Task: inverse folding
């Protein structure tokens, strides 16, 4: 299998790194070589965050540059636009239709850019869902990341992986039912 | 065998454990910090600590190696500037038990002030240099590093970069190899760097390097991957991974793990087997310079920039002119720069500073560097650890001799105070500086992700420790007016600044409030709300620069998911439109 790359992007605290870990656990179970890179440092302070996951028979570089991702998962729609340059022209984007203002936007100094989703949809194959609303309907806004994860598993063929099994092994028991419901809702939403 | 997904830093900690390391001392710094954060899990087998700075850490680790225990220190690249003094002399003296210095370089400056290439330190100090290219090599090469250190009687620099330290790949574990402690006996001739001893040590260093170069031609961490005879690549570290993605399948590789001294015989052999030789290095052309000096024809920095981090797509474009295909979108995203957190204790200090028209604020390395960002705009300089006091001192002297009327404040954090602020505080007092030293004491090393320090009361291994009081240190120096203030009380903060400026005796300020992210402290969390009937839309509350405070329509609004109830916005509101609810909903 040739190497595939996914890039998961969002804002600090949205759970992009945990989602990447679920993905990696599944790929490891399937016997893939896997590499993952996280942007550490100042993400705790409201910055934009990105995590890359690469898998295949043999993976060399743990990072990619522009035009090399098969999959972009955006936890926030302006972040989808920011990282769109990483997608291959025929890559797939999974986008959370959700808006988080930056500090300057919140302070009224800049405006949230209009047309983020439309620009993505005009240029890439996109799977769009409102994961925040789906999570809220399930009773816990924090499972938004697993809702997105569910949608993501429909974007690419990852191989023969029982994702519900992986979630069972990755998340704490008391949140298992919620996360399984979130996963299924995400899958059904796209 | 069971596979584990480990970051390079986790793997270095594992490698140290498996190599039988017994004493470890470091100062935190991105991207090296997680190495030592992952050592306490092995504390039954080894001792580990946070030292006050990298020089102290290196001396502690080196002392342990003299004393007969395999030892480790780790730091970010600029940390080695601080630790350069013991490094250069340890290189002459040699070791007893193995001694490894990890330097984690930061190409592209993700969280650093420069992108210096610390491989040069190995050449400069005349010590072995080892470069892993993934997490498994971080484990395996650590063990080789200790064997080399002991066999060739020298410190070993183990160099990673951000994409080695912070990326995860699959590894397998082995058992710990207990290194026999080497009994200590006094050897003044070897370990006392008096000139006569140093004079006799230098030729030994040269001999050891020669022997190590010979060893490098056959050692297990320098690997030949012979494919075709057309293209050949010599590379090391993360650049190997990029090159493997970029060069054609039939390219031959000489992948070096031991890169100082370079195995020139092995390199010559390899060069003779390929028609065209590339040297692929991130940052400086350190190997290439040596190959060219030895008359070996190769291509490197003519094509590959010495600026910033590489990646396969960037490397392919530079080498073969193939631009990655991307799609340009008509929408421009707004940037999300890091900000001081809601409730950050530094905010009150910088807000107070932002109001002083003739204030000059010499800053330092830490979260509080963010005080430079709008709307606070309350920091003039940031140079290196400790310079908040000493560079501020120099600026104040310049203002004195040139007749510029400025009020100078030197700012360091608590961890930085113990790191190298204390010497600056002594300088200010001793040489009668016209500057107010300020310690922003949040009880933790914040920016690197919460490590303990000599003022925090805990050690790396989680034990209680004596917490050194900053005010006791300053008073012992001779600061007769040490003003301790809660920076979140803006009136008190302003008064502290006014009192310090008016003080007839040497004054210093300690702005003290613990970081809200410290988990072992119970914080007083509340919630601020805006009474929109009272709000006049003057936007004064935005001037504290809190990410939770925003404008909706013409009125202020506070995001309940972010606000922690610090009340800074309420204190600056001229009409009392903001109040605090006691418990968070």
Result:
């Amino acid at each position: 299998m040739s190497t595939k790359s996914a890039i998961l992007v969002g804002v600090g605290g949205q759970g992009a790194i945990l989602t990447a870990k679920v993905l990696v656990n599944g790929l490891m179970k399937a016997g893939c070589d896997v590499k993952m890179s996280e942007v550490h440092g100042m993400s705790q302070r409201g910055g934009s965050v990105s995590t890359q996951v690469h898998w295949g028979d043999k993976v060399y570089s743990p990072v990619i540059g522009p035009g090399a991702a098969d999959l972009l998962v955006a936890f926030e729609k302006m972040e989808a636009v920011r990282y769109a340059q990483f997608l291959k022209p025929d890559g797939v984007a999974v986008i959370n239709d959700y808006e988080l203002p930056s500090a300057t936007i919140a302070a009224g100094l800049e405006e949230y850019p209009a047309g983020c989703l439309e620009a993505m949809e005009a240029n890439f194959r996109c799977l769009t869902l409102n994961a925040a609303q789906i999570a809220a309907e399930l009773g816990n806004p924090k499972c938004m990341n697993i809702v997105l994860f569910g949608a993501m598993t429909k974007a690419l063929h990852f191989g023969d992986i029982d994702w519900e099994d992986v979630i069972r092994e990755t998340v704490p028991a008391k949140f298992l039912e919620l996360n399984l419901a979130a996963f299924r809702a995400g899958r059904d939403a796209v | 065998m069971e596979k584990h997904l480990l970051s390079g830093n986790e793997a270095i900690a594992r490698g140290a454990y498996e190599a039988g390391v017994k004493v470890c001392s470091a100062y935190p710094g991105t991207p090296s910090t997680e190495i030592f954060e992952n050592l306490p899990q092995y504390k039954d087998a080894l001792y580990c600590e946070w030292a006050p700075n990298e020089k102290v850490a290196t001396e502690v680790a080196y002392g342990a190696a003299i004393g007969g225990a395999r030892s480790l220190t780790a730091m970010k690249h600029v940390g080695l500037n601080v630790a350069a003094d013991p490094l250069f002399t340890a290189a002459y003296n040699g070791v007893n038990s193995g001694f490894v210095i990890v330097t984690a370089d930061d190409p592209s400056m993700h969280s650093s002030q420069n992108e210096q290439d610390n491989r040069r330190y190995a050449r400069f100090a005349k010590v072995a240099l080892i470069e892993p290219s993934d997490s498994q090599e971080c484990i395996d090469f650590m063990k080789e590093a200790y064997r080399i250190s002991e066999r060739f009687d020298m410190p070993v620099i183990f160099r990673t970069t951000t994409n080695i330290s912070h990326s995860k790949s699959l590894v397998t574990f082995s058992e710990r190899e207990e290194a026999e402690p080497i009994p200590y006996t006094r050897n003044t001739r070897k370990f006392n760097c008096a000139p006569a001893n140093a004079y006799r040590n230098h030729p030994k260093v040269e001999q050891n390097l020669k022997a190590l170069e010979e060893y490098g031609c056959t050692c297990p961490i320098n690997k030949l991957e012979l494919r075709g005879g057309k293209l050949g690549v010599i590379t090391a570290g993360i650049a190997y991974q990029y090159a493997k993605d970029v060069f054609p399948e039939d390219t031959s590789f000489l992948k070096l793990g031991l890169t100082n001294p370079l195995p020139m015989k092995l390199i010559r052999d390899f060069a003779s087997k390929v028609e065209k030789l590339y040297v692929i290095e991130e940052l400086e052309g350190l190997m290439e310079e040596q190959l060219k000096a030895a008359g070996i024809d190769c291509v490197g920095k003519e094509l590959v920039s010495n600026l910033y981090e590489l990646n396969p797509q960037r490397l392919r474009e530079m080498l073969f002119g193939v631009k990655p295909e991307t799609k340009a979108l008509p929408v421009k995203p707004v940037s999300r720069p890091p900000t001081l957190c809601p409730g950050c204790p530094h905010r009150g200090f910088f807000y107070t500073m932002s109001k002083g028209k003739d204030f000059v604020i010499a800053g330092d390395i830490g979260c509080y560097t963010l005080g430079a960002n709008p709307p606070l705009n309350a920091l003039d300089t940031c140079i290196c650890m400790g310079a908040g006091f000493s560079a501020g001192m120099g600026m104040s002297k310049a203002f004195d001799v040139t007749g510029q009327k400025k009020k100078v404040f030197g700012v360091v954090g608590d961890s930085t105070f113990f790191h190298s602020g204390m010497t600056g505080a002594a300088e200010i007092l001793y040489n009668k500086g016209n500057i107010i030293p300020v310690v922003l004491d949040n009880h933790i090393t914040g920016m690197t992700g919460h490590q303990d320090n000599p003022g925090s009361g805990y050690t790396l291994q989680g034990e209680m420790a004596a917490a050194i009081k900053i005010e006791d240190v300053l008073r012992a120096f001779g600061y007769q007016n040490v003003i301790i203030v809660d920076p979140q009380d803006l009136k008190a903060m302003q008064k502290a600044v006014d009192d310090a400026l008016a003080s007839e005796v040497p004054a210093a300020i300690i702005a003290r409030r613990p970081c809200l992210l410290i988990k072992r402290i119970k914080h007083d969390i509340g919630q601020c709300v805006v009474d929109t009937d009272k709000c006049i839309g003057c936007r004064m509350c935005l001037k504290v620069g809190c990410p939770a405070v925003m404008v909706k329509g013409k009125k202020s609004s506070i995001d309940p998911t972010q606000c922690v109830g610090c009340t800074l916005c309420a204190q600056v509101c001229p009409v009392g439109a903001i109040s605090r609810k006691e418990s968070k909903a």
User: Anything to note?
Assistant: The mean pLDDT of chain A is 93. The two ends of chain A are 26 Å apart (CA to CA). The CA atoms of residues 131 and 137 of chain A lie 10 Å apart. Strands of chain A lie at 4-11, 33-38, 48-56, 69-74, 87-96, 125-129.
